[in-house]
Amino acid sequence: MNLSKSPKSIGQDAVVTPLKYGVNASNRIEESITQELITQELKTQELKTHAEPESFSVMRTNLSSRHQDKLDARAELDALIPKKAHAGPDQPGRAAGGIRFFSLTKLLMLFMIAFSFGLGGSAFASPPPGTWITNTAQIDYSYSPTAASTGRAYSNSADTQVMFNDTEPPIFISSTINPIVATNGGCTVRITLNIFDTSGVSDAYLRLGVMDMYDTTSTYDNGLAGDTTASDSLWNALVYISPMTLGDTYRIRVTAYDIFGNIGETYITLQVIDTSSSWTIIRSLGWNLMNDVRVAGNALSILGDAVDEISQVYFEYRNWSGGNWMPCAVGSWSDHNPDTTGPNWGIYWNMDYLPDDTYLIKATAYDSGGVPDLSPGFLRVVKDSKDSWINEWTDTNEGIHVRRQLFNNLLSDTTIVIDKTSLSVEPSALVGVDSVWLRVTSYNTPPPDAPIPSENTGLFKQGDGSFRRFEREDGATTFTDSILISLPYIDEGRVGDEEALSLYYYDTTLEEWVKVPDARVDKDNDRIWANINHFTVFGAFKFVPTNLSGFTVYPNPFKPNDGDPTTGADYIPGAANTGITFEGLPIYSKIRIYTPLGASVRDLIVSSGNLVQWDAKNNRGDRVASGVYIFIVTTPSGEKITGKMVIIR
């Protein structure tokens, strides 16, 4: 037998043609089994996973691609098989047997290849737990800011290790957000997730919801997110806080899926400060809304600075991690919640019954019609009895309220707020001092070592609760630069009181009250502001003269109808610079007004302050005519002064 002859010469139809058909049939069997393995694997994955539907298409594409590579390799192997008979035409049995042996061999090789490509886990027995194989597919990371918008990114992994039979969920080694407090004025925060999973992380989703409604979708669309340079375990997202996001505490739910569908979850808390137009700014430490306030003691002073015309401010709190809003219990003899007696909107919050924890305070303002502010102010407070820089308490037996606060020269500003009083210290005021505790004590009446002045001084206290003692706990009393203080006062509604009001300090050497130069009275907010450079007891007093040395009457002549407000305006009750003003008078002084012929026109008395206004009417309530009028002023001590004035209508 000449084996060197061509296959056709020795009976191609008998041997070669059946071999050709046999190879194609084998390939069809192999392709059928491969497709069945892929289908069964995908069904198994679909039963085990809850990932988004599009992740199946990625998995299907990856698996199909890998098996197409296998089929291409199989085709190259077939091309190497010699296409000539191993038996002559007189040996059909051996030829047929050779074909059957070759097909069985290919099937065994197919099963071995299937196992080597990781397909045996679905159609046959799985490898034991802990078996690692190489997976060159990229890991698919997803970020879903809303239910309708999903952004995708891929890691750079070229050799991710995958373990079969994984039933454990992904583990969050760490999950951070920076910053933890953001604003809705176009702020961006970075979320970093360090996730570990034995089989590899497949997807990671973020969903942002209000603290009390965990499952709500976000109120903004971040668009596509993710980090294309992240490793398989480290995932980053930049989240843009849209101006449409309401100021509130949000709980970001982070869900991670591994490739076997196991689910792991964690939560990240984000506080969003509403920087849109708000009616109040709530503070207890400086003006920085991002600062935590670490406190100890049984109470905390909170100030809600109003920036619009409002009727009341309501203060609430809740635990930082969530829960219902609760009203702030007041802890002062003069406070109530809501505060309806502005303009110094604030309360003394009783924290005595609260455990050490982190709390969020909300101040909601209401306008005159009872409509609430949709963008309330927020402040985060940490109550920590062992590590705090504010210690505040009240002593009802002594009628005092004390606040200690740590000053650190690394801060650009330290502001102490207590009972609607503020103390602002710049670093330049304490040169050479790294830190010092400052103390402010609030009194309803002057303390024993700074007694109320006698009436012959002409000083009268303005309402109650307008006395403050400022101290440095290092024993010093002076500063290297001026500091700014403000004290509230009670507007008793009497004209002349605020004009006569000023700030005084008690001089322990002279043992008397001394006027603070250049103090400023804020009539709109019922506060007195002053720059000082030393500490002692300060109080708000109105000065009432004891004689007529500073007496004056204006405007004179009185021209209410000429259109010039500087020459006079018709009297309006409670409005300064209306009618005719007699100023610089001791309290209880009497004024009698006559015509040039001696007829009585009007009798007036100074009941408060140092002035009184005449409405240019007689004792019967009728307007007086144009002309010259005579007045006589008599003080309680008997001092008199006489003058004349002119009315031109």
Describe this structure as you would to a colleague.
By secondary structure, the chain is mainly beta. It has five domains: 120 residues, no CATH class; 141 residues, Immunoglobulin-like, CATH 2.60.40.10; 98 residues, Immunoglobulin-like (Sandwich); 140 residues, Chondroitinase Ac, Chain A, domain 3, CATH 2.60.220.30; 96 residues, Immunoglobulin-like, CATH 2.60.40.3080. The chain contains four helices and 39 strands. The strands form nine sheets. Strands 13, 15, 16, 18, 19, 20, 21, 24, 25, 26, 28, 29 and 32 form a 13-stranded mixed sheet that branches. The chain has a five-stranded antiparallel sheet with strand order 22-23-27-31-30, with no helix packed on it. Strand 38 and strand 39 form a beta hairpin. Helix 1 packs antiparallel against helix 2. The longest helix is centred in the N-terminal third of the chain and has 33 residues. It is elongated. The termini are far apart. The N terminus is likely disordered.
